[in-house]
Amino acid sequence: MKPSALIALALTAGAVAVFLVARWVGVGGKPQRGPPVVVAIVAVEAGEPLASLQLQVLPWPGLSAPQGAFAAVEAVIGRVPRQPLVPGEPVLESRLVPVDGRAGLSSALSPGKRAITVRVNDVIGVAGFALPGTYVDVLVSARDSNNEPFSRIVLEAVKVLAVAQDTVSAPAKPKVVNAVTLELTPAESERLDLARSVGSLSLALRNELDKARQTSTGTRLETLMGVVAATAASPVPVVSGTAAPQVRRARAASYQPAPPAVQELRGTQSSVEPVSGGAR
User: Fold this and answer.
1) 99 and 54 share a domain?
2) Tens of pLDDT along 129-153?
3) What is the domain extent for residue 162?
4) Which of 103, 131, 156 is the last residue of a domain?
5) Which of 40, 96, 252, 279 has CB atoms 3.0–4.6 Å from 85's, for a disulfide?
6) Ranges under pLDDT 70 in the chain
7) What pLDDT does 22 receive?
């Protein structure tokens, strides 16, 4: 291709690019302003009523506002967010408690969920790393109807709502407390209440993005010690009472006498040879 043709092609491409940019930012170089949307300009915690100093109306970068957004700060003052808001996040109706809702922990609960508190210590509470907003599995350690010890996961991917009376804490600063409040369904609340009445509870911290459920039947003492060790450690049954005669007869029926043999002595040497046809 000739140099002049390459130059013409480059100029054409540049003109097209300039035209598209002009259409994007608007006529006369003025950027297009999207619809007004109320956004948070500071971090807002869940359950905290919104104030005017925390909000600002900004043009949304797009042709349409997000669904459920607000165009005026006055429309959301006093409303309670159900989840924490970060700076620059739009305030949406779906993330707010209903108009007649109250501030506090109850406002942070998802629809259909309940809050239940369990006692923990520094070990059960995952050394203080079970913080509000994290997710844990709940394990119970108890004894079954045969008085055999077992451990099993009874609840998975449970959200921690609060530790002690705090609904907010710094992720980099673990806090050892004596109580943890969890968000559960009514059925899960019943399971947890029964589990803590029959044994001791433990929490296992998990990744909040890990939503997979694990199928586990629990762990028992023989599984923990191993099948071989459990068999070797099992006691020999002692037979007594009315069962002793039956056991003796069974042992007598299974008894096999040794075949007859002749022992021959030659000086200091000794040898044993079996006798064919039985002893005479």
Assistant:
1) yes
2) 788 888 999 989 898 888 888 889 9
3) 109-224
4) 103
5) 40
6) 1-32, 100-104, 107, 121-127, 166-176, 227-280
7) 57
**CA–CA dist 280, 277 (Å, integer):** 9
Select from 67, 99, 93, 96 the least CA-distant residue to 84: 96
Half-sphere exposure of 164 (CA within 13 A, CB side): 11
Number of Cβ atoms within 10 Å of the Cβ of 7: 10
The Cα–Cα gap between 105 and 182 comes to 11
Residue with tokens 């070990």: 123
How close are the terminal C-alpha atoms of the chain, in Å?
121
**Residue 155: Cβ within 10 Å count:** 20
Instruction: Indicate whether 41 belongs to any domain.
Output: yes
The number of distinct structural domains making up the chain is 2
Region label for 100, one of left (φ > 0), alpha (ψ between -120 and 50) or beta (otherwise): alpha
Instruction: Supply 82's token pair.
Output: 């159900």
pLDDT of residue 122: 58
What's the confidence (pLDDT) of residue 90? 94
